[in-house]
Amino acid sequence: MFNARMGSQPITFFACLFIACLFLSTMAIAAPSITLSRKTGPPTIGIRVSGSGFAPNAKVDIFFGAKDEVLVVTDGQGEFKDARIHAPRNARPGEHRVEALERDNGKRAHEPFLVQTDWRQLHREDMTRLNPFENVLNPKTARNLGLKWSYATGHFVISAPAVANGLVYVSSADSRVYALNASTGSEAWRYTTGSFVYSSPAVANGLVYFGSYDYNLYALNASTGTKLWSYATGSEIDSSPTVAEGVVYVGSLDHNLYALNASTGAKLWSYTTGGDVDSTPVVANGVVYVGSNDDNVYALNASTGAKLWSFATGDYATGLAVADGVVYASSNDHNLYALNASTGSKLWSFTTGYFVVSSPAVVNGMVYFGSVDGNVYALQASTGTKLWSYATGNSVESSPAVANGVVYVGSADFNVYALNASTGVKLWSYTTGNQVPSSPAVANGVVYVGSTDFSVYAFGLPDGDGADQGASKRP
Predict the structure, then answer these.
(1) What SS3 state is found at 294?
(2) Counting CB atoms within 10 angstroms of each CB, which of 41, 195, 246, 419 has the fewest?
């Protein structure tokens, strides 16, 4: 006979199991979560935060680290969308926590955000050789710089390093480009071309670009070093490429400046000058500027290659920078020129004691550059008036890098220097095994530079001196 009491036990058990599962499911649905519009970027960058799983019509504070950035109120479903915050100016390189905290009941959700102050191409995206986000090194801490690591390549390292997403990219006269771990200097990958590589790498949208003396411009996967495409010009490529708005611009010793589709390598246009083009193109406000050893600076429409103007210097125009409507141009006629960026008319010039090969850096109304006369100069950007100079022990072909009040530059006297940007006072130097024509890159509290002693160097602060304090506190 059927026992009702016994038969009810399985029903009670499954009912309880169902209720428990429903409860847990409800809890899982109600668990708060947030999403970020981006996962990495420099200090001051904007971030949009969206969240769900909070109480309806609740007040939610959104923090970056311990800093309360904004208060939002959820909708009737406990959600909010596109709350705008910024990575704080003083957020050190490293992983930080973006957290949404509900005021009434302490519900919270968080996501990591990686602060990086990368240096992706010779001129950086601002075309002035400035890292405006550097917040570890300054005139006080730069005095404590020390060697973090060095890496030996097979030949001269003349190129400027590029730093992006935890890797340092550098080319060498051993026909290779190397990708090195930015923290340790260990090799991630290398790529071998058919000849010397003096061109400085540029990194954009997951690709690394560089030219070779085998006549080709290369585009590689920045993570793996796999070749995606190459474009053959008519001669050697000494020029360092510049990437802007999906286009890569590069000069060749075949007298041409090329504009190529950055994704495919398809030629968009080329412009023929009267001489070799081994200077680095600079792109600003829809115009590409480049120097040629036909002794001219050219301004071309960046979309079409149509010539807008040219300015004749007294010798080969070597390096450029563009800032605040002015083109600053180095020349082997011993001068630095300031030209109106729209018309090419000369605003002023400053004469040094010998060739000016170094590309200028323009920061806070000052222009910094080196000369083969052995000096680093700082001029007033508006007038060309000399503010200070610093004498190294030999020629300065390196292009200065400026970050947070410090000028970093190499010299043929075998040294790399850190100078106070306001006064020119020497803060620090390091002696390598040979000349330093390489232009430094400053990223994430570290200075990277090459030397003709066949090595790449990384200099940083000792642990506990600010370099290792990236992670921010929780709210």
Answers:
(1) coil
(2) 246
CATH of the structural domain 31-115, one choice from 1.10.10.60, 3.40.50.200, 3.30.470.20, 2.60.40.1930? 2.60.40.1930
Residue 394: which of 377, 370, 378, 367 has the closest Cα?
Answer: 370
What confidence category does residue 284 fall into, taking pLDDT thresholds of 50, 70 and 90?
very high
Q: Quote the CA–CA distance of 326 and 314 in Å, as a whole number.
A: 19
Cα atoms in the 13 Å half-sphere on the side-chain side of 402: 26
> CA torsion sign, 3 to 8 to 14 to 16?
negative
* Per-residue pLDDT tens digits for 349-388: 999 999 999 999 999 999 999 999 999 999 999 999 999 9
CB 243 within 8 A of CB 209: yes
CA distance 308 to 326: 15
Per residue in 224-281, pLDDT (tens digit) is 999 999 999 999 999 999 999 999 999 999 999 999 999 999 999 999 999 999 999 9
Is 40 strand, coil or helix?
strand
| 191, 208 contact by CB (below 8 A) | no
Domain 141-460 fold: Methylamine Dehydrogenase; Chain H (2.130.10)
Q: List, as one string, the DSSP characters of 301-327.
A: ETTT--EEEEEE-SS-EEEEEEETTEE
Q: Are 331 and 314 in contact (CB under 8 A)?
A: yes
Give the whole-angstrom CA distance, residue 324 versus residue 470: 33
The answer to whether residue 109 scores a pLDDT higher than 70 is: yes
Q: What's the CA dihedral at 50, 53, 54, 57 to 10 degrees?
A: 80
Single-letter code of the amino acid located at 399? S
The amino acid at 87: A
Query: Average model confidence (pLDDT) for the chain?
Result: 92
Q: Which burial class, exposed, middle or buried, applies to 140 when counting CB atoms under 10 A from its CB (0-12, 13-18, 19+)?
A: exposed
The per-residue b/e assignment along 46-60, b for 16 or more CB within 10 angstroms, e otherwise, is ebebbbbbbbeebeb
231 in Cβ contact with 246 (< 8 Å): no
346: number of Cβ within 10 Å: 14
| Pairing, β 67-73 against β 40-41 | unpaired
Domain segments of the chain as ranges: 31-115, 141-460
Global pTM reads 0.91
- Give the list of residues 6+ apart from residue 53 with CB closer than 8 angstroms, or none: 29, 30, 31, 32, 33, 78, 79, 107, 109
